[in-house]
Amino acid sequence: MQDGTDYYIAAAVLGAALLVKSPGLLRGWRNPTVRAVYALLFLPCAGFVLSAPPTVAYVNRISAVSNLSALLVHCIMTAFACASLVLLAYWRGEPGDLARTRRRVRVWQTGCCGVIAVLAGLFALGDVPVERPRDFDTYYAATPFISQMLVLYLLVYVAAGVATGVVCWGWILDVRGKTAHRSRTSVDSCLRVGLMVLVTAALANVVFGSFKLAAIAARWAGRDWDALNESLPPFMSASGMMVGVGLLVPAYGPALIDRVWQPLVGITALRPLWRLVSSPANTRNDSIFLPPPWYAGPEQTLLYRMTTIHDWMRDLSVHCADDIREQACLRARRSGASQREATAAGLAAMFTAASDARAREVPPAPDRGAGVVAAVRRAEQADRDLLVSISRALATTRRRGGADRHAYRRTPTTCS
Description:
Elements: H1 5-20, H2 22-27, H3 32-51, H4 53-63, H5 68-92, H6 98-125, H7 136-139, H8 146-178, H9 186-220, H10 226-230, H11 232-269, H12 271-277, H13 298-316, H14 322-334, H15 339-359, H16 369-382, H17 386-399
Helix pairs in contact: 1-3, 1-11, 3-5, 3-11, 5-6, 5-8, 6-8, 8-9, 9-11, 11-13, 12-17, 14-15, 15-17
């Protein structure tokens, strides 16, 4: 996009991420890791804004220094490369090795300041009278001092990209090894996704810097590879947005999975059972559980539905017939179902029949309640997601032509 829109879009994405995380910055400003995260969001955001051709023209005009914006961008992106290494050092550093991590970080920060000072000195020594908002690198590739400035900046940028990619990839392998013998948590999954995105962004930075260097080398050889240089801005914009995504996924992904995605999955899985519970025949006016407000989140909605279902099952226990559960369980086992699926099928058939019995105002049998509660408790010990299993059994039964709604002849079985 010749008008710089792609730069501004990338800056807007990073700026939005920066705004989302701004409360955490205010609370944890003394934490060096927090500062590094915000530097990794702010620096490329500022770099994209200053790289857009309209901004380049504006900065050069108000400063009265031709191509000053190019120097600012190069310095900002050098600082961004340093911030990437600083953040990874704090993330990977052991709690007991904090002093060593801080010494390493100070070395990188000192080196970054030195590189920026050299870039500024070379720019001051060079002669760049013609404003080049889009092809500064290739136009001045053979200019004394400016060519050295460009090569130094790009070499540092590529080296930082390689280092970031190597560190992130090694971290991915560590996470994979740690989760090989245990169940993967949402934190593990989001960390791996974020690291993969950061590896991709680091690779994009390496490709970007390498292509820039190739275009500059072509100028030295008397060739014109400006088309290669002009094709890189969208590529760089995508890389900047990936950095924002890679940082935000590990920070906010676990909470979204645990508090939004998993409850939504649970609500969806419970839908067949919830339809049975909330049918007119089962709706109670004396329920002590108030429905959540319309603005309630998935977590609160799921908790309400599970509590209501448990309450409904307890009320129906006096209408339940254990022979229905046993025979439905036995039929499921004979059809090839696992013990867990057969147990859920038996409970689904029993509660469906009990619901029909109460709707027909069949007199309850209080002596049945204790046995039913004990059966449900045994099933819950073997299946932590018992309600979901019952709901799936209901859906399967309906697909096969209807639930078991009538009492069956009692036959001795071993299904329990």
